[in-house]
Amino acid sequence: MLLKANEIHSFYGKSHILQGVSINLEQGNLVCLLGRNGVGKTTTLKSIMGMVKPAKGSILFKGKEIVGRQPYEISRLGIGIVPEDRRIFPSLTVHENLLMGIVKRPEGLSGGEGWSAEKVYDLFSHLRERMKQKGGHLSGGEQQMLTMGRTLMGNPELILIDEPTEGLAPKIVALVTRVLAAIHRSGTTLLLVEQNYKSAIKLAERFYIMSKGQVVFEGGGETLIQAEEVRKRYLEV
Questions:
Q1: Which whole-number Å values give the CA distances from 188 to 41, 50, 79, in the listed order?
Q2: Regarding the domain delimited by 3-234, which CATH topology (the fold level of the hierarchy) does it fall under?
């Protein structure tokens, strides 16, 4: 098991956001968290990444407890995140942004030689054309590509991706979907947060649906397709 989150409870102040969330990812999986706005999907990613510290529960990454670790420590262990707000450096060029994604790993850690700037440019031809342009001058879709490319530069074994297609034009959504599939084929494990069921069902192998801070459904694509009442109740479809 690459990642095992068990009975996670996370708070923002006194607001009890995650109420016993449990999810599992095997090496090489592409798993999707689905659900409407405000149900705890993003908080789940932030709790795994150490950006929110769970008040209760366990998160094991390759058998190691990561609850209580700082985000930079979790990153060095082999987890990367593509946040919804992208967080690029607007005053740096595309190439400089990519170089900022390089993560120093502990000696002896595997999985750190796969991605380079050249491979990222091969994946995102738009970025190659704009490599000397400042990040703040990119379109929303290009910024999303840059954020994904920067995360790949850290050669993570697991990438957490928050709403990668939110607010993008249909043509760019199709491109991002193809890129996610290519990253998955490279052997990287992905945990994807999505609201768009139709996009997610084309990509993911396994699904968790969240509602009010809890997991209300877990299963594969065929099971989800057949669970019409579940989709009507908990998803925007």
A1: 21, 20, 10
A2: Rossmann fold (3.40.50)
Q: Give the number of other CB atoms < 10 A from CB of residue 171.
A: 9
**pLDDT tens-place string over residues 118-144:** 999 999 888 999 999 999 999 888 998
Question: How far is 142 from 88, CA to CA, in rounded Å?
Answer: 11
Local structure of 220: helix, strand or coil: strand
pTM, to two decimals: 0.91
Where do we find the tokens 């009975």?
7
CA distance readout (Å), 17 to 5, 46, 62, 84, 212: 15, 12, 26, 18, 8
Residue with tokens 């999707």: 32
The domain segmentation of the chain, as residue ranges, is 3-234
64-65/56-61 β-pairing = antiparallel
CB 93 within 8 A of CB 135: yes
